[in-house]
Amino acid sequence: MRSQRDELELLIEAARGAAEIAMSYFGRSPEVWMKAGHSPVSEADYAVDRHLKGVLLDARPGYGWVSEESEHSRTGDAGQAQSCFFVVDPIDGTRAYLRGEATWCVSLALVSKGRPVAGVIHAPALSEVFLATEEGVATCNGRPIEAGQRRGEGAGEALSVAMPDQLRGRFERLEPPLRDAVTPAKAVPSLAYRLALVADGRLDATLIRPRCNDWDIAAGDLILKRAGGRLVDTNGQDILYSESPNRHGVLIAASEAAQGLAMRLAEGLAPITR
After folding, report:
1. pLDDT 10s per residue in the chain (274 long)?
2. Of 158, 156, 153, 157, whose CA–CA distance to 183 is shortest?
3. 67 and 50 in contact (C-beta within 8 Å)?
4. What is d(CA 95, CA 44) in angstroms, rounded to the nearest whole number?
5. Which of 22, 27, 79, 252 sits at a 20 to 30 Å CA gap from 237?
């Protein structure tokens, strides 16, 4: 495998071109189709996916490919867990994108041995680029970022936790000690961008409903980890990725300081439904 910095530079190059393509359709009413489960996909999603697949697999023909918008391909290696593969969401937050909102992004990760080793979240409508490698620091537009930099549990200030709108009513019925420790924040449609917000300290945590996919979280998982936070399941375990992409149960993303409270909050709001 090449150096992680070389891999990241390739992801940056691919994301830059993808962002230009996405912006060329943004606000111009691209053609839209509905996928199974009533999820929209647009001609912009497909155009970005074609670009990413071309750039990344031309540069790394031996790597596997996992994308929301195209057929997956495997490396063919006997030891699948040892293989390298890209995990891509061409436009994460398609609904926001189609509404003309800015909170969508291109999300790219390279996975090796089941964990992301390089990741990029590029939000072109916001002029924000989040980057990380497994060996380096996480940055936003070149500025090092830190999860939980504003405050921590026990600091006397409620923690900002993004949660789906469906959970607000259940949250209001929680007992005061837990409820008063949290300020609920609106969950933006792009899960990748929401993870970036936790990594950058703009949110302390976010709760993630069941059935998210690997391409929603792989890049954000790494960026959050290198910023000092974690993305875990309800057992506190890190997420593993494979060339046969997974759908996950309830996940919790939080700064280190907010992790315990976020886990208790997820337990208190259970069951979190789709």
Report:
1. 689 999 999 999 999 999 999 999 999 999 999 987 678 999 999 999 999 999 999 999 999 999 999 988 776 544 444 489 999 999 999 999 999 999 999 999 999 999 999 999 999 999 999 999 999 999 999 999 999 975 544 555 799 999 988 888 889 999 999 999 999 998 999 999 999 999 999 999 999 999 999 999 999 999 999 999 999 999 999 999 999 988 999 999 999 999 999 999 999 988 876 5
2. 158
3. no
4. 12
5. 79
Which pair of structure tokens corresponds to residue 221? 């998982």
Distance CA 257, CA 205 (A): 10
The answer to whether the Cα torsion of 224, 226, 232, 238 is positive or negative is: positive
Q: In sequence order, what are the residues at sequence separation of 6 or more whose Cβ sits closer than 8 angstroms to the Cβ of residue 271? A: none
Secondary structure (3-state) at 64: strand
Which letter does DSSP use for residue 236 in this model? S
| CA gap 136, 146 in Å, rounded | 13
Residue 144 CA to residue 252 CA, distance in Å, equals: 23
First-to-final CA distance of the chain: 38
Q: Is 206 helix (H, G, I), strand (E, B) or coil?
A: strand
The pair of three-digit structure tokens given for residue 40, joined into one six-digit string? 């929209």
Residue 248 buriedness (CB in 10 A; 0-12 / 13-18 / 19+): middle
Would you state the structure tokens that stand for residue 163, as one six-digit string? 């949660």
